[in-house]
Amino acid sequence: MTLDIVLPFSNGLFGVPEGRVPFNIESFLKYLLPAVLLYIAVAILVILPRTRFLRITVWPLVAWFAFRACTHVDFSNGDPLDIIVDANFTLSMFIVVIRALEWTIPSSPLRRHLRPENATPSLLMDAFDLVVNLRGIGWDWSHGVYIPRQTRPVSSRLIFCSYALLSAMVYAFLSGVDHVAIQAFSPETFTVLSGGSIFDPMLPPIIRYFRSSVISVVVALGIYVSLQAAYSFFTLVGVAIFQQDPAQWPPLFDAPWMSTSTREFWSHRWHQLLRRTFVIIGGWPLSVLFGRIGYVLGSFVASGVYHHLAVLRLNGKVEIWCMLVSFSMMGVAVILEHWFSLLTGRMVGGWVGRLWTTGWVLVWGNMMVDGLARSGLFGCSGMFDAVVASPVKEAVGWFVMTFDSWLYSRAS
115: which residues sit within 8 A by CB, 6+ positions away? Predict the structure, then answer.
C-alpha cells in the first residue's frame, strides 16, 4: 500500500508540482527568506523571558512559509539528476518547522553556557548558534544527548582547522568513490532515476541476500563518509571564519562499527543530529500513552516518517512501509534489549551483542536501502562525484563489477 492510497493528496503536497519557479535571488527573497527570518525570530524569542505567547503565535507562520517555499521553488532548477537537492531542502524545512514548534514549549528562556573564548554574550549571536546547533552543544536543553569525546587535535586553532580541512577532503573523496561503487552493482538501474531493487529474484536466496547485504553496507558507509565530509566542512567554517571554539564541534560519530547493542548504536555511536526532532514529534506524544515503550517506538516511527519524506520527494510510488517498518523494528530491538536486561540483570553486550546488533541492523537495513534504491536516489548526482578522477572511477567500477560477476557465477 502506498502513501498515495492512504493520503490521496500526498503527491500535490510533497511531489513536484508543475509551474514551480527555479531557485535564484528573486525566489530566495520571495519564498525562502521569509521562512528563514521567522525561524530566527522564534529562536530570538525563546532566549527572551515572557515570550511564549508570541512564539505560539509566530509558529503557524513558520510552518506556512516553510511549506510555501517547498511547494513553490524548484531547487533542482529543472535538472532531474539534482532532485536530491530538492529533497534535502524539504527535509531541512521539516526540521525548521519541528524545531520552531519545540521552541513554543519552554516556559522559561533557553540558556547558553558555551561560547567562543573572550566572546561577549550577544542575543543575536546566541540565536544564530541556536538555529544551526541541532545537538544543543553548549545549551541547557541538550541534556540526554550523547556527545562523543573530542578526538581531533585541539592544541591550537590552526592545527584543528588543518585537520578539519584534511578530513573534509578525504571524506569527500571517499564519498565520491562510494557512489561509484554503488552504481557499479547495477548500472542498468542504479544510474537512472527510475531506480531498481537491491534484491535480484534470479539469484538463490542465500546469494541474493548476501549481495543485498553487501550493497547495504556500502550504502551505509556512503552515508557515513558523506555526513563526515559535510560536518568537517562546516566545522572548518565555524572555527576558522566565525571563530567558534573547537569544543563546539565535537565528533559527529563514535565508531558505529564498535556497537554491542542496538541501543548503543542508535543512541551513542550513530550521529545524534536529528534525535531531538524525532523525540519531539514521536517520542514525547506516544510516551504519554504508552510510557517508555511509546517513547522509544514513537521516536523511531518519527524517524521512519522523516526518511520516507525524502524517498517520497524522489519517487512518490515507493511504499511507506519500507522506511516505517524498518525504522520501527530498530525501536523494537531497543525494547527487547531493555526487557532482556530486566529479566537477566545483564546488559546486552560483548561479542554476542555485537553479532546481534550487526544481524538486526543488517536485516532491516536491507529494507531501508531497498526503498532508497527503488526511489532512484542512487541515480541522482552525488555531492562529491566531481572530486573523483576518471581513472579511480574506472578502477572502482571494475572491482565492484568483477566481484558482482563472481557472485553471479556462484549461482550458476
Answer: 121, 138, 245
